[in-house]
Write a structure and sequence with these properties.
Elements lengths: L1 H5 L3 H6 L5 H16 L25 H4 L11 H13 L2 H5 L23 H10 L26 H15 L2
Helix pairs in contact: 5-8, 7-8
Length: about 170
């Protein structure tokens, strides 16, 4: 019975593909992340909310480059995904909650309104500089937010990714 398993003609051919395992797993992971995003593609003849159709934007304009998920120009879904990972791996989740809906030490980040500004640039500024206690407008939160996520500090690219994630929470 063991001899039949050792001489199975399928096993040697499968072993030739073992070097493809990591790239295949990476491809599956990317596909799973892409499938979880809320981007949709529709064809319509009705005007967009801004009054201009998506096809009227010049190919090189930021409007044409802006994803359908309403992210600011220059912000990608890869940045949002990295920001999500950083948010949950760092202390962000401890104060703002694992679902970013707010907690005792930090306000909700899911919007629709923000006391300290809700633009992508506002989030970059707040993550970069932090929020000292005397600047917190909602006095139910009394713990300062450390700039750049504390120690070790976030890099500029990581700051932009966390800001992209926070922005995406309220701009779906």
């Amino acid at each position: 019975m063991h001899a039949a398993r050792l001489h199975n003609p399928i096993l040697p051919s499968l072993m030739n593909y073992s070097s493809l395992a990591r790239p295949a797993i990476a491809l599956i992971a990317v596909a799973a992340i892409a499938a979880c995003t809320k981007t949709t593609s529709t064809t319509t003849t009705s005007p967009s909310p801004s009054g201009a159709s998506a096809s009227s934007a010049p190919a090189g304009s930021s409007a044409a480059a802006r994803p359908a998920n309403r992210l600011p120009a220059g912000v990608t879904m890869a940045m949002v995904a990295e920001g999500d990972s950083l948010f949950h791996a760092r202390t962000c989740k401890n104060c703002h909650g694992p679902d970013a809906a707010g907690a005792k030490n930090g306000p909700p980040l899911t919007g629709p309104s923000f006391l300290h500004g809700g633009t992508y640039e506002d989030f970059v500024r707040i993550v970069t500089n932090g929020m000292p206690v005397d600047s917190i407008k909602d006095k139910s939160h009394t713990i300062a937010m450390r700039g750049r996520g504390g120690n070790p500090p976030l890099t500029d690219d990581q700051v932009r990714s966390v800001a992209a994630y926070v922005y995406s929470l309220s701009h779906k």
